[in-house]
Amino acid sequence: MPPTGSSNKLKLFVSCRNLTSEGTVKVICTWNGRESPTNTAETEKIKSNNDPEFTTPIEIEHFFEVKQTLNFKLIDDALGPDDYVGQCSITLGELLIGGQKTQLELKSSSGLNPGQLVIKPVKVEAPKIDMIDFWIKAEFQEGQVTLSKSGLTFKVFTIKKGKPHTELYTSETATGTKSIHWNPIQTSIEKLCGKDEDHPFRIEFYDEENRSEYVAYVDVMISQLKADSKADSKDKSGNLLGIVEAKYELLDKSQNPVGVVTLKNRIHTTYDFLDYLRGGLQLDFYLALDFTSSNGIPTSETSLHRISEDGADNDYQKALKQIGEIIHSYSISKRIFSMGYGAFLDGLARKPGFRQPHCFPLEEEKFSVNGVNNLLKSYKNFVMDPKVKFWGPTIFSEVFKMVQYMVTLTPKANMYSLFFILTDGDVRDIDEVKLLLHHISTLPISVVVIGIGEDDFENLMEFDAKRKELKLVNGEVIKRDIFRFFKFDENKIAEVFKGIPSQVEEYCNTLKIEPGKFIQVPQIEWHKDKFNVF
């Protein structure tokens, strides 16, 4: 299901241009959903005037984890029940990133061009969520409040008349003598005051040595906060732009003033995955494949990389096809950045200074290919190349560094990257992978590792299970949850994609990136000499 405040529903408005048919026509659309294999909807019938505009939209739900192909047929009443004027197809992903309108050429059953079909996707809007970020500072008047050295916390409550207050948030403990600062918090305005911005919410301050009673409080209204804060400009909704601040008296239980609280705040709107796709966001596709010896040599019957003479796909090929088909719908360039790890070319090892490479292109000096078919061709050619020797061990860090480098080559783009790693076993350099995840978690990227074969993938599964609390050796928490692990199942490939839209939303909303705006990619230091590429 889409996250609260987001929508995956669309209305497709269709029209035709330069029709050769002048009869009474309608458009029928069929498509696949997440659970139902075939859905059908149609427009109203109208008398064609060569450029008919249909007013009844095709209503459809978007599911990122499914390749949804839309098949359109233009029907003329004068023709038989199985005949059509023309037809065309497009994936929903291609339609969403194709701009405000997409024009497709109609093809008749005889191969002629009877005109064009124009499709305009319009999102069915869900109510937007207005979020507020707070930075709170409390300053107490000397002699008015006695504070212990243990520090202060604050709690945020909604106020309900005649009912106990509802606690929304408890801060960390902060210390200080007169001026005390806390880490910023984020919540929705609706949680604070419902639909009424004149309804107050409360902030209470507690001494750590006596948590049963607050030492000071302040009641604040969002409308009051907006009016009291100063800003140079406002957005179209009247929200203040940038971080602004307002100051209020702190009161004790007897309503006596005991200090001042400064509320720095920033109000902003959240957007969902469809908003960003409609704003032109595209997905870049990075792929790393495991060619370690544990896969088995390709000529072996039991090899995970076996290329069958009867055309049956191995699990690597099945995964490449299924992943590529979905991702490709969201890329205009159709490029795929592909690389391997764990193998070397025979003869290279005898060269002076040779180091086992753990990152290499599938085609010589070429890390990108166009289209899934070319990717599969490159994979097959590499596996069948007699100079390629599967080796080991399973090392992820160098492909991580390469992807990190490639993503930062374009510092300003409307692009989000998806990095898929296919592997047959557990990873040797898991601690270094943690550090690299920490570094690239500031980038617009998600990482998905897919296990191929019958290994139990113990350390990867444990890594995935604990991803929300992953810490480095120094105790620092990884900045953003961008990692997922799945054991390959060709019947459950949709599970791989379900979490990606929320990761895109989290990244863009946290950085206050509006749909249609460029994503500024942080520049991370990269040292080519730290890993070996052949």
Describe the structure.
By secondary structure, the protein is α+β, with helices and mostly antiparallel strands. The protein folds into 3 domains: 9-123, C2 domain (Immunoglobulin-like, Sandwich), CATH 2.60.40; 130-269, C2 domain (Immunoglobulin-like), CATH 2.60.40.150; 274-518, von Willebrand factor, type A domain (Rossmann fold). It has 10 helices and 28 strands. The protein has helices at 92-96, 189-193, 222-228, 273-278, 315-328, 372-384, 397-408, 430-440, 458-465, 500-510; strands at residues 9-17, 24-31, 39-42, 46-47, 58-61, 69-76, 86-91, 102-105, 116-123, 130-140, 152-158, 166-170, 179-181, 185-188, 201-207, 210-220, 244-251, 257-269, 282-290, 335-341, 343-345, 368-370, 388-390, 412-413, 415-423, 445-451, 483-487, 519-520. The strands form 7 sheets. Strands 22-20-19-25-26-27 form a 6-stranded mixed beta sheet, sandwiched between helices. A hairpin with a 5-residue loop joins strand 17 (244-251) and strand 18. The chain is flat, with a radius of gyration of 29 Å. The chain starts with 8 loop residues before the first strand and ends in a 14-residue tail after the last strand.
Q: Output the CATH homologous superfamily of the largest domain.
A: von Willebrand factor, type A domain
Give the overall shape, derived from the CA principal axes: flat
The number of distinct helices, counting runs of at least 4 residues, comes to 10
In total, the number of domains comes to 3
The quaternary state of the protein chains shown equals single chain
**Separation of termini?**
44 Å
User: Please, what is the average pLDDT?
Assistant: 85
